[in-house]
Amino acid sequence: MNKRNAFSIVLITLLVVGCTSNTKDKSKDDANTNTIEYTAEQIDHLGITDVNHLSAASKRALKWPTELGNEWFIEFGKLEPLKGDFAYEEGVVRRDPSAMIKENGKYYVWYSRSTGKTQGFAGDIENDKVFPWDRCDIWYATSEDGITWKEEGLAVPRGEKGAYDDRSVFTVEIMKHENKYYLCYQTVKSPYNVRVKNQVGLAWSDSPDGPWTKSEEPILSPADNGIWKGEKQDRHAVIKKGDFDSHKVHDPCILPFKGKFYLYYKGEQMGEEITFGGRQIRHGVAIADNPLGPYIKSPYNPISNSGHEICVWPYNGGIAALITTDGPEKNTIQWAPDGINFEIMSVLKGVDAHAIGLNRTADNEKEPTEILRWGLSHIYNNGDYQSIMRFTSHRKTSHTAKGESKEDKK
Question: What pTM does this model have?
Fold first, then answer.
């Protein structure tokens, strides 16, 4: 197993009680006769006291590769405010920035924009905002340095009344392919109630400044195999839960990959539960031969056990993903050589950057996490309004105490 697969077993084996193997046992005790092979170097490296009394944790550790490596391990810094039109503005929601691309000597980013306070589902859902991302349109901004931003205006508006996107268009991502530009994004149709089923829309243009042509129908919808229980607006009450994405498809991101187009997305299941990792959130992928679709969901879905917002990038012939917020494998970086079968590469201390907008101009082949050195995120300034911020990260290769002579190499 190479270094990129080093941490694939770390959290996965948390789901397994004990260790199973067909190899012959080198150490046994009365409590457990499962087989474990090890070397003297592993025992010394892991600091195991007695090979005849191995805990379940030690048995998992002995199955790790000898050279774990740390090329995938990073730490995030504190979010930093931005300047210009991205400075916090009372009364305005700016959130969920897309990845950044650079055109005409400027960075471009797209994002969700709305105004006014959030009333929640207890208010007048026909006229109020139930979430900050409700009643949004997609706007865009440009910057010469990634710090000071100029809001350029509306890119993709909500649809006309009765359309699948008449209530809100939000959480947008950008893809440039063969000199064309594609925006994929979440959509909601009125009324925005608890059981509403979000979908994914698409718009395309010959220029990052538009104009944009919108798809007449969604390019991705939730699975239609769950059954609600009763008529009350209760998303936890179900007769049948259905697929992992039977309620909502969120946070879309399209990447060209292996001659096709991989649409990664977050799925929310009807009757969502709280597990030992938190909310029951997972990711899926749908694949198309053409950027406009049709997108066919992979039979391997779900392709993650955890996650929230989609954050994916090409690396070393495969796809890397930052998995955060929800589930037993949250705060990990994962990698899949085929874009589907992801394994854990590193477990992070914590990720304060949410709804990450990657810097697609970065040399993501330089090292696995180069694309995470800086980019955009958002912060909740209060319960009603959010603003777009800047995140940074650095590689973490060692730990030293204050005053210790050895430098902390980053």
Answer: 0.90
